[in-house]
Amino acid sequence: MARVIILTDIQRPQSMWGRSAGPIRIATELRQAGYSTQIIDFLMDFVISDFEVLLKIIASYIDSETLVIGISTTFMQQRYSKINGNAFGFISKFHLKAISDVAKSLNPKIKIVLGGSQVDHLRNKNIPYVDAMIIGYADHSFLEYLKYIEGKNPFFQFKTNTSNNALIIDHDPKAEKFEFTKSQLLWQPEDHVRQKEALPLEVGRGCIFKCSYCYFPLTGKTKLDHIKESDVLYEELMRNYELCGTTSYTFSDDTFNDSIEKMELLHKTFQRLPFKLKFVAYLRLDLIHAKPHTADLLLDIGLHSAHFGIETFNQKTGAAIGKGLHPNKVKDTLDMVKDKWGSNITTIGSFIMGLPYETRETLNDTIEYLSDKNKCPLDALVMFPLGLSPFTDKSFISKFQENYEKYGYHFDANQYWYNSEFHELEVTDLAEVVSNDWHRSGRIKFCCFDIPMMENLGYTFEQLSTLSKLSFPRSEINARRVQLFEEYKSKLLSAPK
C-alpha cells in the first residue's frame, strides 16, 4: 500500500522511454518524511493500450491511509496543439474521471493532485475531478499539502480555482524553503529501475540568464547558486552505480555550462568516479564561444550530446531575446565544436519561429542555412512556434508574455498570436515542414535527450551518433518499448503491496 501514488511518463513521438526527475524528486522527499510513495511510470502506454490494468494497479496500492494520487504534467503536453478535447496531453476527462472514481470508491478522502511544469498553464482551466494543483518546484509544498489534508498544517496557504474549486498551491513555487544543494534522487526497489538504466540527474537548478521568451523559474541566479555540493553529487552517482550499474544520465539543468567555476567543480567530482560518466545536457553556444577551452573540458567530463538553444540567426532578434552573439560567430562556433568533437558529441539546435524583429527574409535565410548540409554541422534540429498567450495570471511568465503588446503581438479570437509578419498557425506549420524535410533527408539523428531513452531500449551511443533516424525502424523501436512496458507492468502487478 502507498500513502501517495504518482502517475507519470515522458511523451515522445518516437516511442522512446526514460524517466523524469520530478516524480522521483518528490517521492524522495515524501519517503524520507515517512510517507510511502509509489511511482507508476509508462502512463501513456497504460492509457492507450491497457487502461483497465492501470486502474487495477492503482487500486492495489490504495487503502484507508492513502492520501493523494498525483499526476505529473511535465512531459504530457501535446506539442503545437492548443485546442483539443483532452484535459492535458493525452489525458482526457474520461481518464481523470475513471481514476478518480476508482480511487474514491476505495477511499473517499483521496485527493487528485496535478503537478509538473504544465500546471501553471492549467491553473485557471476547468479541469474536473482535480482537487489541487501545485505550481512550480513542489519539493517542500507537496509535503506541506499532505500535512494540511491530515489536519496538521492549519496555516497552509492556497488559492482556489473558481471554475472547479481546486486548490491552487503557489506560495512557494521556487521551493525557497528547500535545501537543494544537499538533495539527491534516491531510487528504491519499488521504482523497478533496470540494470544499467540511464537515469535523470539534477546537478543544478535555475539559470544565470534571463532570456526574454523564457518563463522558467530561478532565472537570473548567481554563479554556483543552486548547485549540488560535490560530495552529495558524488554519493548519488556512486549509489546509482552500485545499485543499478548506471553510468549514463540526462542532466536536467536549464543551462549546464553556465559558468566555468561550475564545470571545473564538476570535473573534479567526476574524476573521482571509478567509471566513465556519460551525459547529455542543455548548453549555451555563446559561452563556448567566449571560453573555447570549455569545448575540450565538456568532452573530457563525459558530455555525449548537446542541445543548443540557438533560437535565431537574426542579430536584432537575438539581442532582443538575450542572445546577442553575432550570427556569423554562432555558426563559426558550431563549426569549431564539430571539428573538436567529431562524432564523440552530437549536437542538436533549437529555433523559435515568430520572435520579435524576425522577418520572412531573415527566417528564409535561416531555413536555407539549416537545409544546406555542407554549411550546417548540426546533427539534428527542432523548431518551435513562439509560445505566447494573453493570460498573465501565472506564477511564471516571460518578458514577452508580460509585455506582448510592446513587442508588436496581438491575439485573435482563438487566442493565437500574430504580429506584422507572422501568425502563430503559419509558423507552426512551417516549423513542422522544416523538421520533416530534415527527417526525410536522412540527416537527422537521435540527439541529446533522445539518446539515454534510446539506450534504455538497447541501442548504443555508437549507433545513435553515426546513423540517421531513418536507420532505426519505427516498428522495432515500438516493439522494444512495448517489451519494456510489459516487463514493468508485470513487476507492478506482482510487487508486494
Give the key terms.
497 residues, Rossmann fold, pyruvate-formate lyase- activating enzyme, 2 domains
The largest pleated sheet is described as: 7 strands, mixed
- In DSSP terms (H or I, runs of 4 or more residues), the helix count works out at 18
Q: Outline the low-pLDDT stretches.
A: 78-84
| Mean pLDDT metric | 90
The CATH homologous superfamily of the largest domain: tm_1862 like domain
CATH class of the largest domain: Alpha Beta
State the domain count: 2
Q: Provide the helix percentage.
A: 25-40%
CATH topology of the largest domain: pyruvate-formate lyase- activating enzyme
Strand arrangement within the widest β-sheet reads 2-1-3-6-7-9-8
Radius of gyration: 22 Å
Determine the structural class based on helices, strands and strand pairing: alpha/beta
Head-to-tail CA distance between termini: 5 Å
